[in-house]
Amino acid sequence: MSSQKVSSKKKAVDAARKRIQTNRTENFNAFDIATAIVHGKREELAKAITLIESENPSDRPLAQALLQEVKNLASGNETLRIGITGIPGVGKSTFIERIGLDMIEEGHRVAVLAVDPSSKKTGGSILGDKTRMDELSVNPSAFVRPSPAAAALGGVARATMEAVILCEAAGYNRVIIETVGVGQSETSVREMVDVFTLLLIGGAGDEVQGIKRGIVEMADLIVVHKADGDRIDMCLKTAQSYRNSLHMFPLPDGGETVEVMTASSTTGAGHIEVRKQISDLTMNWHKSGFFMTQRANQQSDRMRSHAKDILFDKKMGDPSSQEMWDDLSKEMKSGKQSAFSAAWSWVYKNPIS
Ligand SMILES: Nc1nc2c(ncn2[C@@H]2O[C@H](COP(=O)(O)OP(=O)(O)O)[C@@H](O)[C@H]2O)c(=O)[nH]1
Ligand SMILES: [Mg+2]
Asked: Are the beta carbons of 63 and 55 closer than 8 angstroms?
């Protein structure tokens, strides 16, 4: 190695060492919490998730420092993020409990998170009924976290994605996210998982299930659920009709056919097949490179959305901007300006010409 190269390498090492040292002193708490998380301390993980869910702006610097420390320390082992969606009552929680326990039996560690933007309104959470995940939530290889209480979907989605990162750093190599089927929440979960699974009820049409066509198109895998007892035939028929209609859709970006399967979480029927399909999809995506491409694209999208938030907050931080916001907002409400033109004027301090 030339002496020039040696000296530039030494400089890089010195710089890295200095960075670590400053992080240790300035963000001592973050470093300690991150270390505890990486060592699998559940209590610290739960506390850290509470911190990242906080809507208090003064908690953000520590939350960000913590996420950065976790990133520096985490092993980077392979993980899989699975999204489960479907209308309330379709059996998502029951399905997740069974698939979670089966994954643990296969040697995985499983974290379960929820995206439920309605939880603040109803005062509850979709995972609040722990009886449905009572076995999983006490399993030492599982971490079950109820929905964050943040009101706006944006806040819930950001907190959930950050919770995924923390759970993975804590060694949970399978992260399952449950979402209620209300409009935008599916889209935001789609953007944070590798495999997006839609649960359907046999015998009920799309309209009855409140399923929008767009959601069917987002799915990597469809499971007609509660296929047990006298519902089996109906579920098989529903599965067939979805298979027929999916022929008309283009293949998803990953290039793999969307399988429509039937399963019961009461009897366990179909669960082996569902797990196999999830692992086949993942394996094929790893081979084709789609797995990493999708994650990279998801990260770029998040960077963009963080940048939007940061820019907005930065501008709002200026008192004169805030005043202007209030004035424009009054004008808009009185019908003098459209929402777009008010926003434009606020950003450019000039009306649209
Ligand atoms: N027959 C049958 N009932 C189920 C199955 N899975 C869940 N259930 C029942 O469906 C109801 C709703 O389940 P839950 O998991 O809370 O649904 P979620 O709202 O989608 O999370 C509960 O009463 C479950 O016991 C299943 O595979 N077969
Ligand atoms: Mg549920």
From this structure: no
